[in-house]
Write the structure tokens for this entry.
Amino acid sequence: MGIFQRFARIPLKSTYIWSLCRQYSTDLTAVDRALIQHRNPGAAPPRLPFSRVTQEDLAFFRTLLPGRTITDPDLLKSSNVDWLKTVEGNSEVLLRPKTTEEVSQILRYCNERNLAVCPQGGNTGLVGGSVPVFDEIILSTSLMKQVITFDNISGILTCQAGCVLENLSNYLEERDFIMPLDLGAKGSCHIGGNVSTNAGGLRLLRYGSLRGTVLGLEVVLADGRILNCLATLRKDNTGYDLKQLFIGSEGTLGVITAVSILCPRKPKAVNVAFLGCSSFQQLLETFQCCRGMLGEILSAFEFLDASCMSLLEKHLKLTNPITESPFYIVIETAGSNATHDEEKLHKFLEEVMTSSLVTDGTVATEATKIKALWSLRERVTEALTHEGYTYKYDISLPVEKIYDLVQDMRGHLGDMAKNVVGYGHVGDGNLHLNITSPSKDPALLAAIEPYVYEWTSKWKGSISAEHGLGLKKRNYIYYSKPSEAVALMGSIKAMLDPKGILNPYKTLPDNIH
Amino acid sequence: MGIFQRFARIPLKSTYIWSLCRQYSTDLTAVDRALIQHRNPGAAPPRLPFSRVTQEDLAFFRTLLPGRTITDPDLLKSSNVDWLKTVEGNSEVLLRPKTTEEVSQILRYCNERNLAVCPQGGNTGLVGGSVPVFDEIILSTSLMKQVITFDNISGILTCQAGCVLENLSNYLEERDFIMPLDLGAKGSCHIGGNVSTNAGGLRLLRYGSLRGTVLGLEVVLADGRILNCLATLRKDNTGYDLKQLFIGSEGTLGVITAVSILCPRKPKAVNVAFLGCSSFQQLLETFQCCRGMLGEILSAFEFLDASCMSLLEKHLKLTNPITESPFYIVIETAGSNATHDEEKLHKFLEEVMTSSLVTDGTVATEATKIKALWSLRERVTEALTHEGYTYKYDISLPVEKIYDLVQDMRGHLGDMAKNVVGYGHVGDGNLHLNITSPSKDPALLAAIEPYVYEWTSKWKGSISAEHGLGLKKRNYIYYSKPSEAVALMGSIKAMLDPKGILNPYKTLPDNIH
């Protein structure tokens, strides 16, 4: 308890803490744990000593962005609260720049004035990363929605950060291409936000992560400098790949203003199968069989459990198209030859049905039916919001372990939780564990955390596979990253944003800012 | 000329230079050009004031690495010179650690003693990045060749940095998997070197870059700290992705000691087609047709020109299997169903033959013949070494531009060059432009550079698509990266390696160290 007490006495924003941690390097795990546990780690920390917005500041912004400097509280309301309605800030200014130059001028001014800034895309994040914690100025990309170029030979798209993912998808489909990522929030999320959070989603299994498909970024740094790394080349090994710093750093190192991304050809044939399994073991065996038999045409392998299906039926009035089962799988194939793809899919289905790995199933090749089947997977998040309060966990684990966590959590929580459900991306070893309760419940939260993180850490998993850390998970980083790594992240933050004005209280733990 | 003269008077290793550059920020292009042009930018800079290895140092290394501290000049010779025999250092010590802990102790010692270190893998680099420039201690990964784990469900391999790529390929093939990268130097190159240089190679078109497939790294920092980011998860968004800093930074930010990498299943069917085209325009049309018709089974689309073929025939006695043509294409398909793949390939071949895009061709499905066809592409580099001295350029351009550069260069150089040949990765827009001469020829070099870089820069290409910058290309970085980006790279270097002991004189230009 000595270390614990030592930390309790020292203000959190102190480099002294970190040097203390380093001194106790033989006992870093205990230190990290103390840092994590000594108060509610998901809660907001104390406000840091940033300046407050003055009338002079507003006058500056109104001159720079006439009609696009929003201060009406009603208009600000939806930007102050996250999509899940679990985190709420009280920013009094929302800025809506249209150009990179405007973003640059805003940040240069804010940095000089020591005003904190919360960059915001479609505000669909799930970890409280996209809303202000206190009175940070909201810098919205909503008016930065121009496609800059699209090259239909290379498939390389360059666009402003505020383009809505679904709009980009529609734009590309007309040109016989698709975006390399797809996710449930596509109707609202911005590509800049997708890149800032290194969004994974439904196509990662096939097209890989944004770290491979994003070819270039334009970023405005905290002091207003514009970093133009907006290359449109598949390969470029000239020096360090700076854009990687901004992918997945949740707006804490710079504001992404434009993106170049490599887009695959639109597949000529798409099939979706919706299958039922009687155990998770059978689901895993189906996955193995699927990878072997569908190979290069497999574009998604997703799952949801029976509890998810009940919520879809109850709250969204969706219909289960097959016999009731403990587990459901969504398999998508995407290929260049419809006949070949259907033959592969049918052989696979024959194999898994005759071997009883799968108990029932249905297949769609027509767009409307494909969409209907996909919505059973995509709308689980939405169905959960009707249940009251949802505690959300986004965990990477070795694939054979992912459902053990759900079952273990059910046993651990017993009647305390209303629902404990699991769904997610089997192909990526990524579980979305969701626990609902009629309303916020500190006792339930205390039973879940740090239990869920300890469980994940024990199996060398990640406590955030794709959602990021944001506000809610920032202090849990040590469950997935060693102290040396977190300290180095702090050095990078200090180098790029010495005053810490960019999305404060997010991503990095409270002992590092 | 004012700026040019100003730089000529100031010692290159000076932060003052950079602050000067920043003052002249309205004229940065001219400044960058002056920095590049004021002397032979590929030549070695003056030795930096590192310590020299003493008898005490040797005694320390011999105690730490008994029998693995090499000082015999004969044994050191091959490690002091690059594979192309164009760059030679005069290191007097080669260290061969077996463990990460040993690497850590070496670097901690060298950092304290201010001894410079050149990390070395298989020493197959083409830009002088893997050999010492002066007397840097060579830190070889050649004894770090253990596979640590392989998970045959997820396909994730974890191994030490010194594993030879071909050995890993063989190891995986026995387990029904393959490495996601393949390159001509596979028999010698180390996976740690591949990752340090962000090697591209022959499979990038299909499996993407190492930035997506490398899941984790263990790295020893300049001061000996071990950074363990050796995750084996497909998705992990907990904080900044530090491993990206070390991918492609050519050993200047840390020494990679272990790698986790996602490996694809071994395809059940592989076909290779070797085709002839009568113009580069027809080759490009063949590529477009190929992408549409082969789609997801296309795993490589490579080319070589008639001059390359002549060199293969002349120096390596290889036989051209088809009618003589101005251009040759190697197409590889890899898929899960031999019948489907062959059907797709035959339809495609029928299409390109009947439309006269392709003039002649041959197809291989059997391993020995596949290997023979591939060697026509893979052994061009080797054939060139028999021509005398080779000036090598590794350029990314919009794909429709790549051969224009070869033709333009032929016209520009006229009789000065013995050969001007082009080959490379059409699918990635990556040209290998090679210019040969009986021996080193400063006049020829002056005609090539900066002409080739200006040409590339005009088309917003990369002056190093996959080879990196190393010693030879470091000062040309400004042709592909803006000054703000290079300055930020310098800050990252200063943060991670404040004494600059790691692979000095490489990657970053002389005004930044």
Observations:
- Chain B is about 35% helix and 20% strand.
- The two ends of chain B are 25 Å apart (CA to CA).
- The first strand of chain B starts at residue 69 and ends at 70.
- Chain B has a mean pLDDT of 92.
